[in-house]
Every structure is written in structure tokens, then in C-alpha cells.
Design brief:
globular, alpha+beta, 10-stranded mixed sheet, Alpha-Beta Plaits, 5 helices, 10 strands, about 20% helix
Length: about 260
């Protein structure tokens, strides 16, 4: 007897500071693991599977993340009520914004059109400890104007083999970055934030492992005088592979926007 599968898109937000990323891992606290545990608690008789829009690293957060849940045989009778029930049972650092039914034509990974990541950082003085989950803190003085110039180099189609860790065979190393720039941080505010902080905003269809954090790392190296604009340009041609030595901390990174076709 053939079973029916009911598919739902779940939009959620999470603070990643105490999690080992999105993907479920043995012995680790992850966002997917916590969501799956909650779904199984609420739907004990239902076979449940989850497919995320992409992996996030440890301590990375999201203001707009998406996943698909697959339920065997049993549809959700009251989606709004179930959304409220999910939020009641999830920990306070995970919030479901919306649940909607979809069909087999939709795929959370293949249907992804654009992702915007934002990396928050400050420099020059040590931050209030409460800032730690939200932004990276560079104690040294850095040349922020030079970093802004460097950010613009990443726009367009380039070879990003220098900007990923554990490069695998058949990885798509040529990627297109639609936007990449640094501006003053106006996305998140708090009375314990430093007087001035900054945001690297970067948009593309998809990113390799550590790609955004290594782009940010190269800009920090640039701002410190450890890397030049010319060296970054060479890296974007696939040269000088050992020059990008710094992966920026995960806690400064958040997925800000996720668009589907």
C-alpha cells in the first residue's frame, strides 16, 4: 500500500551561539536536532523528516532560515495552531515564523534563488561581554576604508577555491556574488553594543563551506595590513591558495534573507 507524504515549508529564526550549527550530528546540540526532537514529541505516531535550505556553522545565527518537513500519511489539520504549539515547545533561541504546505515540485535546496548573509563586527576596543553572540570583536585598529574597497572585489563571478575549507572533488568553485559591501551596522542594535559597529553584507545563490567567513577573514587581514588588494585579486583567480589564513568567528555571521524561485 502506497503511503502519502505531506510537505511543509517552515520559516524560522535562531540564535546559533549555543549550537553546533544546523545539521544534526551525534552527540552535538544542533538546530535541526532540536527541531526534530520537538516535532517527534508533538507528533509521536508520525514519521518525520527534515531537509534544511543549507548548513550553517557552529554559532551562526539566522533571521530568515527555511526548511522542509515531510510527514508520512498524516497531514497537519490546523497549521496555525501547530505553529503556535511548535513555538511553545521549542527553546527561546529558536522561533518559527511560518508553516505552509507545499508539494513535490518544490525543493528547499534546488528552489533557492538568493541568500543574503550579514557579518557583524567591531574593532578598536573590547566589547561588552553580552555582544559575544552577535558580533566579532577585533581588538586591534584596522583600516575600515581599505576593507570597504576590498569587499567590492568579491562582486561578480570568480574562482572561490581559496575561500573555502576542505575543498572536495567536483565542488562548484566558480560562484557569482551579486552584492558585497561593508556599511555601518543598523540591522541589530542594543544598549550594550559599541557606539559604532559594522556589517559586511553579501548576497549570492549559494556558498561553499566557510566561504563567507573566509571572505570576512581576508578583509580583516586586509584591514590589519597582512594582505593586499592585489593578493585578494590573485586569490579570486585561484592563485595564492595559502594566503587566506583566517576564518572569521562564526558568532558574527547570520543568514539575513532567503529567497526562492
Amino acid at each position: 500500500m502506497q503511503t502519502a507524504t505531506y510537505r511543509y515549508i517552515v520559516t524560522l529564526q535562531f540564535l546559533g551561539f549555543r549550537y553546533s550549527g544546523w545539521q544534526k550530528q551525534p552527540g552535538q546540540k544542533t538546530i535541526e536536532g532540536m527541531l526534530l526532537k520537538t516535532l517527534k514529541f508533538l507528533l509521536p505516531q508520525v514519521s518525520v523528516k527534515i531537509l534544511g535550505a543549507g548548513r550553517t556553522d557552529a554559532k551562526v545565527s539566522a533571521l530568515d532560515y527555511g526548511c522542509e518537513i515531510f510527514l508520512k500519511d498524516t497531514p497537519l489539520d490546523d497549521i496555525l495552531g501547530f505553529t503556535e504549539l511548535l513555538n511553545k515547545n521549542l527553546p527561546p533561541d529558536i522561533r518559527v515564523l511560518n508553516v505552509e504546505q507545499t508539494d513535490s515540485d518544490f525543493n528547499i535546496i534546488k528552489s533557492s534563488k538568493s541568500k543574503e548573509y550579514v557579518y557583524l563586527f567591531s574593532y578598536g576596543a573590547k566589547n561588552h561581554p553580552f555582544c559575544a553572540p552577535f558580533m566579532a570583536n577585533i581588538i586591534e585598529d584596522i583600516n575600515i576604508d581599505l576593507m570597504k574597497s576590498g569587499a567590492s572585489l568579491f562582486m561578480g563571478t570568480h574562482n572561490f577555491s581559496c575561500f573555502t575549507a576542505q575543498l572536495r572533488e567536483n565542488s562548484k568553485i566558480t560562484r557569482t556574488i551579486e552584492n558585497c559591501y561593508i556599511e555601518e551596522n543598523k540591522l541589530l542594535t542594543a544598549n550594550f553594543f559599541p557606539p559604532k559597529s559594522y556589517a559586511l553584507r553579501i548576497t549570492g545563490q549559494g556558498f561553499m563551506r566557510y566561504q563567507v567567513r573566509m571572505i570576512m577573514g581576508s578583509l580583516i587581514q586586509l584591514g590589519k595590513g597582512e594582505l593586499t588588494l592585489n593578493e585578494i585579486e590573485e586569490c579570486l583567480k585561484g592563485n595564492n591558495k595559502n594566503k587566506i589564513e583566517y576564518i572569521a568567528p562564526g558568532s558574527g555571521l547570520l543568514l539575513n534573507s532567503l529567497q526562492f524561485t
